[in-house]
């Protein structure tokens, strides 16, 4: 099941954006083909209206993702080129009533901005010339939110704190939080506009706990849609479950009915997001030969194919031995250890952003991955895989987990609803 998308209305911003766009018609046609193909490959339901035709906004600006639907946007949506992650804590003295009012404000702002409209109050004008640009805003609740709002009886067991891993070097100031927002867009100004509007909407009810900025390759930057690369230069995300898989919903979304208590039914159709700030020790990585890098990952760097041959999507042949009698894909290769067949079928939908926060005094880049993965139950998805990686992943030598969070992301709102209404008012 995918998010439904209503017809797109021509907004004031999109109308302004049509002026002078005729000269870019050739570029727009090329971008349209790539964007639509990418959407089809990922099962996304974002649409391009009349503004995507020649002589108007290119598809990059006009593509709109629905706010309302069975699921929140930003989970199965194709990865955008710009992202912001931000966590808030409710202000001292704020409780359930303040949380209700806040989620109402945030939901209305997200709905308007995702439609390419201005913010409902005191719009800053940052993105007046742009269309929606595939903007998505996704909301989640942290473990502590339920204590702050007196809703501990409605806190799912799946939201229990993640276990400690030996490789963690977590900064508590950049971890967890009562509320979490993921913002994605294919235009940096549109993404920042949403971040600024939501931060202003928080008012006296909540304060920013931490905020991180990320990026991905822009749509149309490659000749055809392809799996993204991370800052190590590796094709990253090949093994992701696909919406076309028969068990996709079961793995990624909370079932509509199950053995859990009725108090947890508000999460039916929702998902759980694990967020990790993973610093890549790029100077150490870049010193390795391409052959060594491939042995660490278990895949060819050029095209992401397994070391056992084929193409990127060829299944790993974990039993194949080389002429020397050794496993072609080493026992500690990242691809081997994280493979679902090595973890009882455990799977998660990875949807990360890369980040770069400058250089240290020694010249090393503070850069890496804002890892975000989605699953129906982190105790069956992220946790068992991370435990195995923690015990013997060759990649561990070149990365450092510096921040972490786990959030319950409820289903999408129906028209007239706000995100989380079934939790806060059920």
From TrEMBL:
A GO MF term: lyase activity
Catalytically driven reaction(s): heme b + 2 H(+) = protoporphyrin IX + Fe(2+)
Name of the featured protein: Deferrochelatase
Keywords: Heme, Iron, Lyase, Metal-binding, Oxidoreductase, Peroxidase, Signal
Known cofactor(s): heme b
The keyword Iron appears for this protein: yes
Enzyme class: oxidoreductase
Organism, scientific name: Streptomyces antimicrobicus
Domain Dyp-type peroxidase N-terminal, chain residue ranges per copy: 72-216
Cofactor binding description: Binds 1 heme b (iron(II)-protoporphyrin IX) group non-covalently per subunit.
Function of the protein: Involved in the recovery of exogenous heme iron. Extracts iron from heme while preserving the protoporphyrin ring intact.
Signal sequence range: none
Family matches, as InterPro entries: Dimeric_a/b-barrel, Dyp_perox_C, Dyp_perox_N, Dyp_peroxidase, EfeB/EfeN, TAT_signal
């Amino acid at each position: 099941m995918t998010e439904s998308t209503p017809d797109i209305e021509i907004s004031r911003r999109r109308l302004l954006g049509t002026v002078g766009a005729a000269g870019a018609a050739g570029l727009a046609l090329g971008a349209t083909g790539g964007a639509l193909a990418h959407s089809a490959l990922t099962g996304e339901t974002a649409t391009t209206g009349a503004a995507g035709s020649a002589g108007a906004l290119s598809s990059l600006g006009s593509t709109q993702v629905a706010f309302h639907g069975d699921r929140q946007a930003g989970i199965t949506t194709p990865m955008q080129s710009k992202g912001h992650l931000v966590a808030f804590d409710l202000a001292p003295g704020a409780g359930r009533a303040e949380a209700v009012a806040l989620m109402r404000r945030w939901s209305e702002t997200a709905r308007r901005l995702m439609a390419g409209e201005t913010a409902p109050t005191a719009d800053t004008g940052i993105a007046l010339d742009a269309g929606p640009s595939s903007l998505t805003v996704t909301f989640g609740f942290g473990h502590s939110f339920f204590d702050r709002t007196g809703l501990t009886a409605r806190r799912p067991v799946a939201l229990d704190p993640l276990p400690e891993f030996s490789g963690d070097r977590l900064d508590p100031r950049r971890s967890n939080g009562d509320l979490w927002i993921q913002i994605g867009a294919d235009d940096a100004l549109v993404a920042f506009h949403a971040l600024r509007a939501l931060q202003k909407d928080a008012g006296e009810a909540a304060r920013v706990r931490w905020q991180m900025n990320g990026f991905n390759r822009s749509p149309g930057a490659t000749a055809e849609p392809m799996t993204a690369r991370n800052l190590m230069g590796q094709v990253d995300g090949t093994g992701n479950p696909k919406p076309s898989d028969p068990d996709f919903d079961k793995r990624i979304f909370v079932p509509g009915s199950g053995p859990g208590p009725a108090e947890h039914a508000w999460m039916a159709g929702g998902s759980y997001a694990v967020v990790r700030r993973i610093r890549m020790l790029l100077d150490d990585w870049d010193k390795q030969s391409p052959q060594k890098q491939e042995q660490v990952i278990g895949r060819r760097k050029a095209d992401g194919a397994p070391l056992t041959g084929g193409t990127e999507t060829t299944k790993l042949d974990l039993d194949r031995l080389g002429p020397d009698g050794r496993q072609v894909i080493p026992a500690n290769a990242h691809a081997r250890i994280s493979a679902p067949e090595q973890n009882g079928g455990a799977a998660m939908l990875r949807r990360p952003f890369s980040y770069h926060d400058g250089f240290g005094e020694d010249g090393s880049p503070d850069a890496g991955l804002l890892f975000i993965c989605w699953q129906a139950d982190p105790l069956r998805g992220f946790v068992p895989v991370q435990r195995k990686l923690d015990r013997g992943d060759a990649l561990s030598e070149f990365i450092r987990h510096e921040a972490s969070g786990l959030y319950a992301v409820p289903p999408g709102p129906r028209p007239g609803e706000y995100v989380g209404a079934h939790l806060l008012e059920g």
